[in-house]
User: Fold this.
Amino acid sequence: MSTFKSFAVLALLFCLAMGVRTSPVQAQEYKEAFNAAIEAAKANDYPTARDEFARASELARQENDKDIADRSASNAAKIDYNIGKGLIEQGNFAGALERFNDGIDVYPSYVNNYEGKALALKKLERAEEAIQAYEDLIAFGNEHNDTQALRKGETGIRDHFNFLASAALGRRAEPSASDAREAMASLEELQERVDPDADTYFYLAVANNALGNYDAAVSFADQALGLHRGSRTDAAKIHFTRGEALMYAGNITAAKESFENARFGSYKSPAEHYLETL
Assistant:
C-alpha cells in the first residue's frame, strides 16, 4: 500500500471539501456513488474509489449535475495518474499506460495523464507513439494556455531527437559522413516540430565539422553558445567544437581563443594540447 501514500491528503480533502449528502426525498444514485468513492479513498481502496468516482460522474451527467460530474471525473483521473505513476516506479509500463489512458478518457482536462502517457510510451520504446503523446501535451498546453504543459511537451520531443543525433555522432571516435548526415536528419525533424536548443545547435556544429562545413559549424556553435545557460564546464564542448572548426578552416588565432574557453572538465587536456601545438 506504500504506493498510495500520496492519496492520504487527497482522501482527507475529499471528506472535508467534497462530501455530498443523499437527498432524503429523492434517492440520487450518483451522490451515493460519490460518497462511496470518498469512503473507499478513506479506506485506501483507490481502485474502488476510482471506479465509484467514474460512475458518479457518468450518472451525474445524466442528471445534468455538471459540478458533481466534473469533480468526480477529475478525482478519478487523479487516481489513475497516481496509480500509473506507481506502476512506472514498479517497471510495469504497460499497466501504467493503461491507467494514464483511462485518466485521459474520464477527464481530458487533467494534464498529468498526458505527460504520464508520453513517459510510459517512451519506457516501452514506442518512439513514434511517444512523440505523438508529446505532441498531444503541446496541444493541451496551447488549448489551455498551460505554459508548463507546453514546455514539457516540447522538451520531450527535443530530448528524443537530440538523443538520436548524439547517438549517431558518438558511434565512433570520429563521426563519419554517414553518421553526420544521420544526425542532421534527426535534428531537421526536431526543428520541424519544436524550436532548437543549445544541444541541437551543438550537434549541428559537430555534424558539420565531420562533413567539412567549417563555416557552418562555427555558426551553429555560436548559436549554441547564445542559448547555453549552464556552467563553463558544460559549455566547454561547444567551445572545443568551435575551436576545431576554426582550426580546420585555418583561423588559428580565433581557434586558440575558443580552445582557451574549452579548458574545463574532460575538454581541458585536449584543449591545452591544441594550445601548445598551434
Summary: The radius of gyration is 26 Å. The chain is about 75% helix and 0% strand.
